[in-house]
């Protein structure tokens, strides 16, 4: 029996840094990553002592580009799963804007996302930017 890979978005947000990973749940490997600590991204940001939603958007855009290059932006046809409510809960309410900035950047750059915490009958995409 062949297992279908299921990709999941995982976020790591602190006051200074933002990292977004797409993880293959079948083997626990990170298949794509983007972070504000990368020199190429860091140079384009004006984070100073903290990273904001603009930095989160750039991290999301870079991750989307990397997923496209690797042919993973469709999550093998099943999409990349993300539980926004869980990510916000882990990061704290004040980081809600950063979480949504990453999610919206991915969506806006052609990454097929599946919101695990949304009712499937609701086809509208929440706008929290």
Automatic annotation (TrEMBL):
Pfam families, A to Z: Ribosomal_L18p
The protein, known as: 50S ribosomal protein L18
Gene Ontology cellular component list: ribonucleoprotein complex; ribosome
GO molecular function, one term: 5S rRNA binding
Similarity comment: Belongs to the universal ribosomal protein uL18 family.
InterPro entries hit by this protein: Ribosomal_uL18_bac/plant/anim
Any one GO BP annotation for this protein: translation
Superkingdom classification of source: Eukaryota
Keywords: Ribonucleoprotein, Ribosomal protein
């Amino acid at each position: 029996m062949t297992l279908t890979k299921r990709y999941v978005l995982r976020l790591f947000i602190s006051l200074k840094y933002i990292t977004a990973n797409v993880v293959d749940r079948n083997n626990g490997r990170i298949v794509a990553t983007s972070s504000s600590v990368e020199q190429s991204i860091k140079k384009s940001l004006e984070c100073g002592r903290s990273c904001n939603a603009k930095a989160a958007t750039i991290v999301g855009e870079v991750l989307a580009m990397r997923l496209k290059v690797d042919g993973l932006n469709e999550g093998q046809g099943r999409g990349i799963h993300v539980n926004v409510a869980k990510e916000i809960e882990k990061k704290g309410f004040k980081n809600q804007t950063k979480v949504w900035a990453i999610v919206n950047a991915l969506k806006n750059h052609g990454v097929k996302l599946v919101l695990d915490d949304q009712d499937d009958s609701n086809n509208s995409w929440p706008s929290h930017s």
